[in-house]
Amino acid sequence: MLIAGAVFAAETLSVLIQTTTYKVRKRRYGKEYATPHKVSEWRRCITILKKLGWAEPQVVMRFYILGVLSAMIALARSRCD
């Protein structure tokens, strides 16, 4: 399932890492330290790619392609076992 949902897993992992590190730093050092020391200014991979200059339809299409490829890999792997 992790292979089939690779795009969703990567997106979720990105949000979890950034949210967790912010909360830990906020609890340990305070909000004044945690806010400027975020892992990334944006939470989601899509937002990061858009800020790098990719158009939203391009980002969405690439994620669709990656989703289809990862589903095909998962199906091929399940048939080989």
Q: Can you tell me about this structure?
A:
With about 80 residues, the chain is an all-alpha fold. Helices cover about 75% and strands about 0% of the residues. The protein is flat and about 50 Å long.
Total helical segments? 4
User: What profile does the largest beta sheet have?
Assistant: none
Which residues form runs of ≥5 with pLDDT under 50? none
Mean of residue pLDDT values: 84
What percentage of residues falls in helices of 4 or more residues? over 70%
Cα(first) to Cα(last) distance is: 15 Å
What portion of the residues fall into strands of 2 or more residues? Answer: under 5%
Task: Throw out a few tags for this protein.
74% helix, 81 residues, mainly alpha
